[in-house]
Amino acid sequence: MMKKCMSDPSLIIPTEDIGIKDNLSYEEIPVQILDRQIHKLRTKEVASIKVLWRNQFVEEATWEAEEDMKKRYTHLFESRKIPNQGTNSLLSTL
């Protein structure tokens, strides 16, 4: 059985505060670099960084190409030391 819904105007959150666009999408913003790895291929080396994104947990961090992230988000690399190689570098800083 359907019931009538009574709206409460105090519960409405303006979309400008969240950053939702007209097409109901939003841009994730990187918050911190958690780890760094260099993958050695036959002819070159590819640097990757583990990025923590806004509104996500550490377990949901993703590996991104360091070169691409430097182009798009230069503020992450300014005056900030990137952790050494290894998977437990975050744990050693805690």
Automatic annotation (TrEMBL):
Native source organism of the sequence: Solanum verrucosum
Protein's name in the database: Chromo domain-containing protein
Kindly give the PANTHER family that the UniProt entry links to this protein: CHROMO DOMAIN-CONTAINING PROTEIN, RETROTRANSPOSON PROTEIN
Domain Chromo: start-end pairs: 31-78
Say which domain of life the source belongs to.
Answer: Eukaryota
Lineage from the top down? Eukaryota, Viridiplantae, Streptophyta, Embryophyta, Tracheophyta
